[in-house]
Write a structure and sequence with these properties.
about 240 residues, alpha/beta, five-stranded mixed β-sheet, 7 helices, 11 strands
């Protein structure tokens, strides 16, 4: 048995099988509890993982010594990361880079991963990672407003109402403000990225739990799409294959 783990700040996906194939299965856990709650198969097993929470990574390594391989740039020798400080490069972003280039080797790709943070990675057609940006995701923005203000309550992420910039209640104002803000940021980032010669004709793929929101509501001329497979887990899977 071989597991694929994508350990995010809020949620962890644990999968078996091949992403995009019939044997592929995924379960989701709350990240803070994963080290204690996950019960892997009782027989022989190993795992390949991406983790952006050092404490959870350390807890899993302590509980399952020598069972879990955490991905690093060395797992993807065909990806040129020389333009970036890889010491602080999150495993999820690394997996997205590798997966995007493997799925689109003939064309540059920009991946926007939408979760606790909205982060981007840009990889050229010849496999060179150029960098990206990181900003708060929708849920993080909602929580930050509640935490930093005295009167504004915290709201959960929901489907958008009407994108009305003239909200008549605090709830409408917050929801529409955050939704319009993140959509505007994503659009500006995409357009700015396509001004870079190596990314002028890039694909734009959205990954992460909030990806459908962005794909649905961004302007059609941006050609924002969902990738053909779960991107981050596919990148982790590629590291597993290369390590065999």
């Amino acid at each position: 048995m071989h597991y694929l783990l994508n350990i995010g700040n809020t949620r962890t996906a644990i999968a078996v099988g091949t992403p995009g194939k019939k044997d592929f299965r995924v379960e989701f856990f709350n990240t803070p509890e994963i080290a204690e709650q996950w019960r892997p198969w009782e027989g022989e097993w190993h795992a390949t993982a991406s983790a952006v929470v050092p404490a959870v990574r350390e807890a899993l390594q302590k509980r399952f010594p020598e069972r879990i391989h955490f991905i690093s740039p060395e797992d993807f020798p065909h990806i040129d990361c020389s333009a970036y400080d890889v010491k602080r490069l999150g495993g999820d972003r690394l997996a997205n880079i590798a997966a995007a280039h493997a799925l689109s080797p003939e064309r540059a790709v920009m991946v926007l991963d939408c979760g606790t943070a909205l982060n981007t990675v840009c990889v050229t057609a010849n496999g060179r990672f150029l960098g990206g940006v990181i900003l708060p995701g929708r849920e993080t923005a909602l929580k930050a407003l509640a935490k930093a203000t005295a009167l504004l309550p915290e709201y959960a992420v929901t489907a958008p109402h009407d994108f009305n910039p003239l909200g008549r209640t605090s709830e409408d104002g917050i929801r529409n403000g955050v939704d319009l803000g993140v959509l505007g940021a994503a659009e500006r980032i995409i357009r700015a990225t396509r001004q870079i010669p190596e990314m002028a004709d890039c694909r734009v793929w959205f990954a992460g739990g909030d990806a459908p929101f962005f794909v649905k509501y961004l302007p059609p001329e941006l050609h924002a799409e969902l990738p053909p497979v779960p991107l981050t887990l596919y990148g982790i899977y590629l590291a597993r294959r290369e390590a065999l």
